[in-house]
Structures are given as structure tokens and as C-alpha cells.
Amino acid sequence: MLHEILLSLSGHPSALFDTPRGAEGLKPDTCPLLSPPEAELLSSIGRLSRLHRLTRETASRISSSHPSTICRALATAITSSHLARFQQKVLDVESRILRKDASAVGAYNIVPLAGVVGEFDEWTRLMEWLWSLVSFVMPPDSSKDGLQHIADHKTLSSGAAIIDKLRHEAQTGYPDIEEAALDLGKVAETAWLKQLSTWLLYGRLPTFGATDFFIQKAIDEVTEVQFVVNNKLLPKFVSQQTASSILFIGKSLNQIRALENASNAPVAILSRASELELLPVHLRHLSTVTAPISSAGLLEAVAAIRLSLSRNMLQHLLPLPKIVEILTLLQEFFLLGRGEFAVALVTEANERIRSRHRMPGRALQSKVGQSLQGMLLKESEITAVLARTWSVLSTLSGEEEHSDDGLDLAMDVIHLALHKSSNPRPATPGRAKGTIESLPKISNVVFNDLLLSVPTSLTMDIRSPLDLFITNTDIDTYSSINAYLLAVRRAHLRLADLWRQSSIRREHPAPPAPQYSSTPSGKAILRTRRQRTNARGREMRKVWATCGAAIFLLSESGAYFEGEVVQESWKHFREWIIRPEQRLSSPGLPQSSAPAIMPNRITELSPPDSPSVGFRRSVTDPEHPPHDPESLASAHRRFLDSITYSLLLTDFSFTRSLREFFTHVDELVAFVTRLQIIQQNLDLEGDGVVDDLANYAQEEKEVELELDRARKRVDSDLKSLVARLREIDAERVGSGSYPRQSTSRSDSYEPWRVGGVDRLLMKLDWGSGADDEDEDGDWDNSSTTPRF
Question: From the centroid of its chain, how far is CA 689?
């Protein structure tokens, strides 16, 4: 039986321990020659042998079929190290028994069963822990080929999950388990570092186990390969800033290789040579990271590789003037920095909508929503709206010899297209996507269906290598901000256009001349017209007061959003970008002597104790080195987050109230326009031009009723908006206009602190002291002062 015990502990099946067992161990009738204490001792040996066999079999399946190379390395380490030591322990016990060592063999060559069991007591807890570990990697109900039963809803563990588990298991009070967890953790993290080195040094995903790496390849709708971060595969010891830099480094190397394959430009060739020369430098930085991996050490090594890559290669691939050019383009056309673009676009869109009204057989209905539903524009018509806008802007550019490079570039890369609902709106990413500096969580209230009758978005082509700096998600955020600002500008222009129509505000047609109005019949006509004009004026007084209040709110809000928020934030951001470049070429340094980095020359950071830091110690300002593209991309996203927060786009209640306000403004304008047409027809009937198929008097009563309801809705929206602004001001007291703090890096971008909502409220509350409302909450007929 002693040989049976040792063979079973070595991993071989045994009839002694594989028979059915009772709740407490072996059944008494299994081995009738064993006493109950002996059977109890053998039950612990039997459990240990079964754990050994199951652990070895599961580890063998993991090392041969698991898709993660980290889990395979872990299983191999368990088999070759810990289980091998257990087998060596069995051989040592057997050797001492054969040598009749006194530590194992007693008098008369009797081997005590308790002594044999006691030799393996220390392995029971460790073997149970190893079994739980391999069960975590591959659940026990997995099939032999490593695939799970779908009905069980279990999945294989990832490399990141097992690394996090080993780090957690190392924090235990059992020394043997702690030692095993640290040893296996080093193996798993070393395998993860090998995957990381392929991406950091060559810009390629791992050849084996790429599905387990936290950077994944994705193909968008235009079959362009993009790289994204999977939050489920990101180890917890990798910080957000580190993951962002890792993604940027690999994308940059991949982009350089793609440009070299697609073109024979000298820059690409020189960049490739520089990449090969930089490889030993980057490898030396990466070799400083050893398991167990320290978050600070990994961040330092990745930052050194990123700065080395940016200063030696990316400044030629993506120079700062090119970045400033594309950012200026986004500011002028997406953030409405060029005001004539917004006016021209809104004008052309309104003209396109009015042309649909004038189509034969299309009657203007009383409900605005019903009329717009029948005027869905085609994509070609939407493209034509932007094309006419470009034509208008071209005529405004001035002299023919003056060329507008920004407008020419915008005409080439900016498009107005139908908004695709399948594209998700920018949202706060998960843990891994947070590595891309937390894009803002914009309210799901849409404004892109106000410009035209269908949801449209202003988009821009992101061409290589600009995709290293700006992503499609950033463009989606710009599109949302653009639709928001355009909606404010459009509502303002539509209301202001009512004042430019003389037939609405003045008596039309003009009174008859004195030679006609002095006659009895002329006096009667003049008296009738004056009575009719006075009656219409009294009815419209409340409407004009509401329109005036709405224009006041829109003008002040637009000035605050576009002037104080967007414009000031952009000036601050642009100054932060070009400040290091200005320091390079200013104080006593000729413009021609600005540092020019040769692609084939490797430049590195100075040691921390060096008197100057930078890749050009004799030229670069040590306190303000030039920003690398990754830092610029990070700062750009913080800039977007800041203006999105300051524009109140993250506040659902405010955006919902504003969206309803824009809809009701459109209804009010439509009813005023409709009432004007009806009253003109009534005036013609008074002059003898009668349409027997129309009852304009009845229509006038119906439209006046709907107009009064629309006016009251706008009044209510104005009060709701100002009330919500006061709530936002109270919620943000003491927190500033931008809630997030700057990062720990000395060169991090700190967004511009925009004046709070109280600055806007002070302008809107100018008429709050006047009590000029009647009992029904309507505007008083004797005053046009708005009171919110």
C-alpha cells in the first residue's frame, strides 16, 4: 500500500483513492483492513493526489490550447516549477524509505503512516491554491479542447485578469502562497512585457496571443485599420497616462511604416532609418522595467521612449505648424470662429427649406412639424448647401489675388453629410478608453436636425498622419458642439429676420396719398385701415415682446458661448501650443538658428541632474521644451472637455430645455409668417380680390390662437432656461468652470478658467426688477422689457 500511496501522489490513478468516498473520506468497507484513523489519514493523501492530478491535467490543457500566451506561460511555470518540486518531494520521501532513513522508517523497518502523511501536510494548502488558480484560468467544466460550454456562460480568463489576481493573492498571511504568487506573478508579467515590447519597439501587435493584448485592431466603415484599447485586457497597474502613451507610440511606429510602404518620399525613408537607430535606445529604456512591474517605473520608461520617438521622428512626420493649421481650421468652422461661415450656412439652409415650400403642389400646413416631415432632403441637396456656402465665402474673401489658404483647405476636407445614427455619441470611456484623456460625456439631446429637415453633421476627413493627433471621436465631439452653436445662431437669425420684414411691422400697403385720402371715400378707407392696423398691432404687441426677450437671451447666450467660452479658451490653448516654439526663436536667437533635428541623429533626454533638459541643450528652454504630439493630443482632449463643460453641453436638463425652446421658436416664426400671408390675403379681399376656395377670416382666428399658444410656450421656455441657469450657477459655486484638476506632469495643459454662468445671468437679469407681467403670466402691453 505504501507504493500505491507514493504512485498516487506522483499523479498516477489509484484504485485505492479513486473508489467512491463517504462524506468524511474513504468508506469503511473499501479497505476492511484499515482502522478508522488510518482511513482518515489516507483521505487527506487521497485529496492531495487528486488535486495534483487535476492541476497537472488542467495546466497541460492551458499550456496547449489557451489563447493567452500569459496564461500558457503561467501554466508551464506551474508544471515545471511547483508541481515538479512536489514530485521531487515524493521522490525524496521514497528515497529515504528505501535507504531506511531513521527520519522516515521506524523500528523493525516499520514506516509509520502518520509520518508519511505528515511529510505532505505543508503541500495541501499550496496544492489547493494552485488548483483554484488553474480553475480560474480555465473553468473545470471546460471541454478538452479548451472551449467552454455556451450554456454555462463562462469564459476563459485573460492575461490581465490573472496578473491582477496574482497581485491580489500575494497579499496574504501564508508565506508559501505568497512566495508562489510572487513567483508566478513574475512569470506572467514577464510574458506581458514581451507582448508590450513588440508593440513599443516595432509598432506591431504580438504574433501569438494578440487577442489577449490590451491594444486591439479595429476596422471602421471605410476599411481603415485603427487601434483601440480594450478595458477588459488592461492590467490594473497600468495607469491611464501610461496606456495613452503606449497606444500613441505603437500607432506612430505603425503609421511611419505605412507611409514608407505607400510612398517613396525622402521623409519616410529617413524616418525608417531613424527608427532602426532608435531601437537600441528604446530597448535600453524598456529593459529597466523588470517584474514585478512598478507603475511608476513603467510610466518613466514609456515616457522616455515616447519623447525620444517624438523628438527624433515625429517632429518631421507631424510638425507643429501642421497641427496648428488643423486646429485653426476646427476653430474657425466647427467652433464658428469665422462668423460669416455660420451666417452663410444658416442662410443657405433656410433658402433650401423655403425652396421646398415653393414647390408646386406643396401647401404650407399649419403645424410646423407636419410640414417639415414632408421636406426630407437628399444627400445631394445637403452637399449642395455646403457648396453654395463655400461660394458665398469665396466672394467675401476680398481681392482676387488674395488667397485664403484656410478656406481652400476647409473646402477640401470639411463635409456636410447625413448623420448616421449607428455612430455612438461621444461618451465617457471606460477604464482603458480613459487612457485617451477621458472624452466628455455629452448630453444625448441632439441639435443636428435643426439646420435642415434631416439630422446632419459637419465632418472632416482625418488624413494620415493627422490621425496620430486627432481621432474620429474628437471630430464627433466637434460636430456636436458645432450643431449646438449653429442652433443658437440659427434661432437668433430667424427671430431677427422678422424685424427685417417691413410688411409685418408696418402698415402695408402704405396709406393713400393726400389727394385721395382727403376725399370722403379716401377718408373712410384710411380710417378703416388705421383701425385694422391698430387692432393687429395690439394683438402682435405681446408677440413682439416675447420675440424681443427671446432675441435678447439668444444674443447674450451666443456672445457668452462663442466669445467668452470658445474664443478665450482657444486663445489660451493656442498660446500654450506655440509658447515653447516662440521661446526657441525669440530672445537673441535668430530665426534661422532654430533647432533642426536630423532624422538620422538620435537625441535623448538629459539626466535628471543635468543643468539643462532637452534634446538641444544649447538652444531649448529647459523649463518649456517643445510639446510632443502625444502631449498635444492629450491637451487637445482636455481643451474639448473644458469647452464642452463650459458650454453646458454636459447638462441634460439645460440642453433639453434649450432644444424645446428652439422648436417653439421655429413654431412661433412659422405662425407669424403664416399670419402675415393670411392678413395680406384679407387685405386683398377688402380691395375686391376674393378667393372663393379659401376662408381667410376663419384661418386668421385659428392661426392667432395657435400663435398665442406658441408665444406662451416660448415665454415658459425662457423662464425655464434662466431658472436652470440659476440652478447650474448654484451647483458650480466654488468649483470653477472646469471641475477637473491638472495632471502631475509639469508640462500638462491646464484649460482656461472661463467666467462662470453668473456672468451670463447678470446680463439676463437686467430687467428682473420690473414687474411687467399680468396675472396670466403674459407680457404687459405697455412694456417690452423682458423679465425672466
Answer: 62
Q: Distance (Å, rounded) from C-alpha 24 to C-alpha 784? A: 92
542-556, pLDDT tens digit by residue? 999 999 999 999 999
Longest dimension (CA), the chain: 151
Q: How far is CA 686 from the centre of its chain?
A: 62
For 662, list phi and psi in degrees, rounded to 5.
-65, -40
Non-local CB neighbours of 337 within 8 Å, separated by 6+ positions = 331, 566, 567, 570
Does residue 480 register a pLDDT over 90? yes
Q: What is the pLDDT of residue 632?
A: 85
User: What residue type is 517 in one-letter code?
Assistant: S
CA distance 545 to 548: 5
Q: Give, in order, the Cα–Cα distances in Å from 755 to each of 169, 411, 739.
A: 50, 34, 13
State how far the Cα of 716 lies from the Cα of 231, in Å rounded to an integer. 45
Q: Which of 320, 331, 245, 307 is nearest to 572 (CA)?
A: 331
Q: Which residues pair with 458 in a beta bridge?
A: 416
The CA-CA-CA angle for residues 294, 295, 299, to 5°, reads 115
> First-to-last CA distance in the chain?
95
| Distance of alpha carbon 76 from alpha carbon 63, whole angstroms | 6
Rg for the chain, CA atoms, rounded: 38
DSSP 8-state code for residue 436: G
Neighbours of 313 (CB within 10 A): 24
**393 and 372 Cβ atoms separated by less than 8 Å:** no
The one-letter amino acid at 192: W
Residue 578 has pLDDT above 60, yes or no: yes
CB 78 within 8 A of CB 71: no
- Exposed, middle or buried: residue 741 (CB in 10 Å: 0-12, 13-18, 19+)? exposed
Q: What is the mean pLDDT of residues 326-347?
A: 93
Residue 279: CB atoms within 10 A of its CB come to: 12
Length of the chain: 788
pLDDT at position 424: 41
Peptide bond preceding 426 in cis form (omega within 30 of 0): no
Supply the pTM of this predicted model.
Answer: 0.76
Reply yes or no on whether the pLDDT at 344 is more than 90. yes
CA–CA separation, 778 vs 772, rounded Å?
A: 9
Minimal CA–CA distance to 315: which of 764, 626, 772, 635? 626
Name the phi and psi angles at 563, rounded to 5: -90, -65
Average pLDDT over residues 584-594: 38
> What SS3 class is residue 735?
coil
pLDDT at residue 67 greater than cutoff 60: yes
The pLDDT score that the predictor gives to residue 244 is: 84
pLDDT in tens, 258-286: 776 665 554 544 445 456 778 888 888 88
Lowest mean pLDDT among 47-56, 428-437, 694-703: 428-437
Bigger pLDDT: 763 vs 265: 763
Instruction: Kindly report the three-state secondary structure assignment for every residue of 204-262.
Output: CCCCCCHHHCCEEEEECCCCCEEEEECHHHCCCCCCHHHHHHHHHHHHHHHHHHHHHHH
